[in-house]
Amino acid sequence: MAEKQKEKKIEKRGEKQSNALEEIEEDKVLEGADSLELKIEILREDIERLKAELQLIKQGKEASAGISQDFVTEAPKVVERIAPLPDWVDKPWMYIKPEKPEFLESWRRDWSDYTLKWAKFLVIHLISVTELMEKNPFDKLSEVALRDILEYMNSKNSIKWWDKNKTLVRIYWRSLEEWCEIIYRWALRTGRLDFTLFEIMDEKEEFSTLPPEDIKEIFRLMVEKRFAEWMGKKHEMIKINY
């Protein structure tokens, strides 16, 4: 008799454990369903937000096209570009001209490479030594050290002294031959048949800020390479050969 009562207690205990497990599983399912519904709700809110933003953008475009002039938009702010600094920017010895020849060559080469990358990033063709010395990280160099670097670059045809007093530097991060190819491809892409030096300078392209003397030389190279031909006797305008 006692054994039967014991068996019944075990069965009841098993039933309770089974029911508890079923409740736990049910809770997990409900929890998963709630999580899914929450995700769906968040997605719906995101979609509504994106629709509202698109509507605002559309209204802004319509206003700029003259459809609605109920409000005045501010002029876009000009953000000055900041060139990436070299890996060795925090190394104090990079700002002192080495005395040993084996270190001097490497030091000059590192500064030369960075100067070209710096000028290319900022689209700088012509700059004064004084202005260059005010730019980071060149401002940590003495004028003697900076001029040594520039003289090294001049010997490698990477820069050119633009005046007799060596106050202006023309930085050649692209050669004139490369600019010749670039302007020719630009003319083909845009369908420009002919243009003058001043028309080139009015374009909003990287080559537009080149010194006029260099643009004249590029025109000469384009004619020499048969990319173009002169128009007029003064050689101030070229016609593209397609």
Chart the SSEs and their pairings.
Blueprint (H helix, E strand, L loop, with lengths): L1 H63 L36 H22 L3 E3 H4 L10 H13 L3 E3 L6 E4 L4 H15 L3 E3 H6 L9 H13 L3 E4 L5 E4 L2
Antiparallel strand pairs: 1-3, 2-3, 4-6, 5-6
Helix pairs in contact: 2-4, 5-7
End-to-end distance: 111 Å
CATH topological fold name of the domain at 92-171: Arc Repressor Mutant, subunit A
**Overall 3D geometry?**
flat
What about the largest sheet?
3 strands, antiparallel
Alpha-carbon Rg, integer: 35 Å
- Stretches with pLDDT under 50, minimum 5 residues: 27-31, 61-78
Order of helices and strands: HHEHHEEHEHHEE
What is the fourth-level CATH superfamily of the domain at 92-171?
A: "Winged helix" DNA-binding domain. Chain C. Domain 1
The tally of beta strands, per DSSP, is: 6
Mean pLDDT: 80
Number of helices: 7
Q: What is the spatial order of strands in the main beta sheet?
A: 1-3-2
**Helicity range:** 55-70%
Q: Please state the oligomeric state of the protein chains shown.
A: single chain
Instruction: Report the structural category.
Output: mainly alpha
The proportion of residues in beta strands is: 5-15%
**Which CATH class of the domain at 92-171?**
Mainly Alpha
